[in-house]
Amino acid sequence: MKKFAFLQKFKINTLRKRFFLIVTVGTMLSLTLVIAVSYVSLKAIEKTKIETSMVADLKEMSDNMDSVYYALLQISQQMISTGSIGHKYDQYLTAEIQYDRIDLYKQFSESVNIAVFGSKNITLVTYLSFDSVSEIPPNLLFSNFMVSENFDPRTIPSLLNTDQIYFQALHTSHNSVMERDVLSVMRPTVFENGTQASIYIEAYSDILSSIEHRSQLQETQYVLLQLDPQNTVCFSNSEDYRLGETIELASNEVIQIENYIGVTQKSGFGYTNILLMPATDYKREMNNWFFSMAVVVLIALGILVSTATLLIWLIYHPLRTLQNEMQNFSEGDFVIEKYNFDIEEFDSLFHTFNVMKRQIKSLVDETQEQEKVKAKLELEKLYYQINPHFLMNTLNSVHWLAVTNHQPEIDAFINRLNYILGYSLGKADRRATLRTELKALKMYLDLQKMRYDFDYILDIEEGPYLDKESARFILQPIAENAVCHNMDEFGHLWVTVRETPEYISIKIKDDGKGFQITDGADLGTRESRKNKGIGLQYVKMSLEAFYQGKAEIKIQSQDGAGTEVELILPQGRE
Fold first, then answer.
1. Which residues pair with 143 in a beta bridge?
2. E strand map for 23-91
């Protein structure tokens, strides 16, 4: 045949050669696919490392800083002249009687201690006054701890200056007995007697120790920068970036600055945090991944070659023996030879061949019938093997194919279908609760929305009752009746769940065509609603078995006015 002409041209005319050709081509294609997928995966890992890990870490750090600044703002608000602490200090300044001054100072000091005790990270609280000449050190009016020598908050870089409050970058504490990394704020205030003062408060932050721990753990050097709204560096833990240096930032979160790569995070207060790592360390990890990939490919190639060789021997050797047997048989040799290859298929084949030798033509028809029966049995065996567990694994494989081929809609569809199948079989969420029932219902409705054009609204009262044990799969059949049988195109479905001290109410209502209900009629036996009746009959039987007759199901419907099914479940079951 022409389509196999190239095989004849290269004298690939034996089973062994063609088997080697098929295995070789298949192996090369598989390796090519593995390399392509590995490369794409590596690029995805690279992107994920930056956009997921570092972004999450920096966001956590930024949130931590904002939380510290917020705590400092709260205390500083109390310390201005109109605040609860500042008012007491104001009274102390204006008191004329010495006894009153002592008592008021004691009250003020206790208020400061209470405020500091409420925020355990506070390391220093002060009132200062500044001379008009900036070179003159400030006059310390009050401090809850001793301050360091040459203490002057004006020398600390400000991340944000609103003229009313200064957000100061990370720096070493000015508490004389502590050497911690702190964040601080400073804000001016004027007391009733005309005293102009500045409030300085600082609080401990473990951001730098966290970065140092992360650097040691991952054997790299992470860099943290704090920029003011003009992108000027106000803090840096690396000598590569100096205070006062301006950095140009791109519009996206991922940035590359000189020999570093990292992410940015805009604070809620307006300043910017940047977390960087050396690009060389980043590439080193990528190179390690490439090396690992090469090792895996080589190992896979060795396994494939070994497997192919073994398969060829297992197949070719019995076939060569069979060829000799057939040649002898064609020459009139009817001697029975016994072979044992320890391979069930080949042993059975030689047994059948020997039987054929004995019976010749008389057994041909019987053999054919046996082969038909055997084929039928094998087919039935395959059908029985296609069990729900196999279907779930297959759906999971389709899910990963959809992910690999960037098909989010198919991925979402398979995920929901796989969950519903697993849940219905008790393989997912083995303990059924109202919460898992509602989850399965939502998965089902999301799947149906891909087929039908309708909207659904879930109105669920949150509470511990949702985690109580429930009968399994009692909501989906009701919703299926509404979506597939009751509702018209562009319909609506409402699911309402409420709790009372005595019972739990679950209502599923649609705005479909509805139907007339005869008093006392069992919907499960009505000829006009066979399909719906099966589902509702199942729900009734499940409720009866699980709640032992304590649950109710109510159905209200009218032609053209929609249908409402209400399940009334007891709060508990004995």
1. 126
2. none
